[in-house]
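Lecture 7, part 2: worked example. A protein chain together with guanosine-5'-monophosphate.
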Amino acid sequence: MKNRLFVISGPAGVGKGTLVKLLLQEDPALTLSVSCTTRAPRKGEVQGREYFFLTKEGFQDRIDSGDFLEWDEHFGNFYGTPKSFVLEQLEEKSIILEIDVAGARQVKQHEADFGRIVLIMIVPPDMETLKSRLVGRGSETEETLKNRLARVEYEYAQKDKYDYVVVNDNLEEAKRTLQNIILQETNRGDKHD
Ligand code: 5GP
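Predicted complex, written out as structure tokens:
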């Protein structure tokens, strides 16, 4: 068995958070990566559990020393996946990164250091249902809703760049498919990539 890095992406509202939670609950050999951020901790968040909370300078130092597998800016704050932390964790367990399409593309470029990195996208059975669900939430302005829908379309259109595309039609089935992928990939060598 080889511990592997699994990147799980998917459009908003597709249920990937729920699936990841189930995978972690049922497999003690899996863990979730902890990201770094420059945003302030919210109530109840613990340093090193939800995030590693860093100053802007601390974050910049890590960028400069090449210690991010990927990083991005959201809402004026920086977020990134720390390479040294992931490498350390990987000695013990396989790791899941729940990350968007842009982040996944950056992470995939680190296979020289990590061996095979497995990209998995969760997709809805049909896009129209997902979109109407997002519209139905009704909690957003026209503009943010438009942005969200465009983003969902964009993420979905990137699915061919992924190693696996898993349809979340039935939660239990999608979970089992993911568990099979994880089993298969941790038993697979790095040759013939
Ligand atoms: P929040 O501040 O609500 O915890 O997260 C804000 C946004 O940052 C979310 O869209 C989340 O997916 C994204 N995010 C969290 N961690 C990372 C990371 O390590 N890398 C990237 N690129 N985005 C992240």
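The chain has a mean pLDDT of 93. The first helix runs from residue 16 to 26. Keep this in mind for problem set question 3.
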